[in-house]
Design brief:
The chain has one domain. About 75% of the residues lie in helices and about 0% in strands. The protein has 9 helices and no strands. The N terminus is likely disordered.
Length: about 260
């Protein structure tokens, strides 16, 4: 007797999981950005607005660019990796607060909500990078780094560090919801001290030594080293990658602990 044909409605576990992940990503984008592309476009264009506000401030005050001869390129190389880190670390934390009711469905786990938000933020950051590159080309600035591989590695490290800190934030707000405000204040401090608007290596050695313990600062310097190899910027690649991998490890362990206690 021939075997009965398999129903098309039956899916493998992997297909079912990808379907859930896809649904979470679509819901995430629609609830945060609206049902149209305009809302999503605002988020993608925000880094451009941010960078050109800085350019306008420096132009209005007639301040010289600290490195090179292009204000847009200098600010873009510092702001983009810092913003990529901050957006991922912040939005991953917010995903749990916004989508916690979805975890009541048996098909949806807390990790699925976090992963969906991470993927959305990675795509958003990539599109923002493309927009910034296109704008730089339109205003006559060459956006290609002297060392493309080094720049790509720096952006990937920014994503990994953002994921790690974001997962740690998820665990923290599981016990202390007020941490969202605390992290917003910490993000401002990190942004100011990460060298977006200045060149940290020009500071006195004693100050610069302690500032380099901020891995976000070294991410900005990593990108700038890819664009300005003659600047002699020294990057501790091992330190940055260890911070990223350690934060991911600790974050995932904490999330697992939080999930266990919440379901107990």
């Amino acid at each position: 007797m021939p075997a009965l044909p398999t129903s098309s409605s039956q899916k493998s576990p992997i297909e079912s999981y990808l379907h859930v992940l896809h649904a979470l990503m679509l819901r995430d984008m629609r609830t945060r950005f609206g049902a149209t592309l305009w809302g999503y476009g605002v988020v993608v264009l925000w880094p451009c607005v941010h960078i050109f506000v800085l350019i306008g401030i420096y132009t209005f005050q007639k301040l010289a660019v600290p490195l090179g001869d292009s204000r847009p390129l200098f600010f873009a190389t510092g702001a983009v990796p810092v913003l990529v880190f901050q957006y991922i670390s912040r939005e991953v934390m917010k995903s749990v607060i916004m989508n916690r009711p979805l975890t009541y469905y048996p098909q949806v786990k807390l990790f699925d909500v976090i992963l969906a938000r991470i993927l959305v933020e990675i795509v958003t950051g990539f599109l923002a990078l493309l927009v910034v590159t296109a704008v730089l080309i339109c205003i006559g600035t060459n956006p290609l780094p002297a060392d493309p591989f080094k720049a790509m590695c720096a952006y990937l490290s920014a994503i990994l560090l953002g994921i790690g800190i974001g997962t740690i934030n998820v665990a923290i707000i599981g016990f202390f919801p007020g941490w969202m405000i605390g992290y917003a204040l910490l993000s401002i401090l990190l942004y100011i001290s990460s060298g977006v608007m200045f060149l940290p290596s020009y500071l006195p050695d004693k100050i610069y030594y302690w500032m380099k313990f901020n891995p976000v600062l070294q991410l900005a310097e990593w990108v700038r080293a890819a664009y300005y190899p003659y600047a002699g910027i020294e990057i501790d690649y091992l330190y940055i990658n260890l911070c990223a991998l350690a934060s991911i490890t600790v974050g995932l362990w904490l999330v697992r602990t939080v999930v266990t206690k919440m379901t107990a």
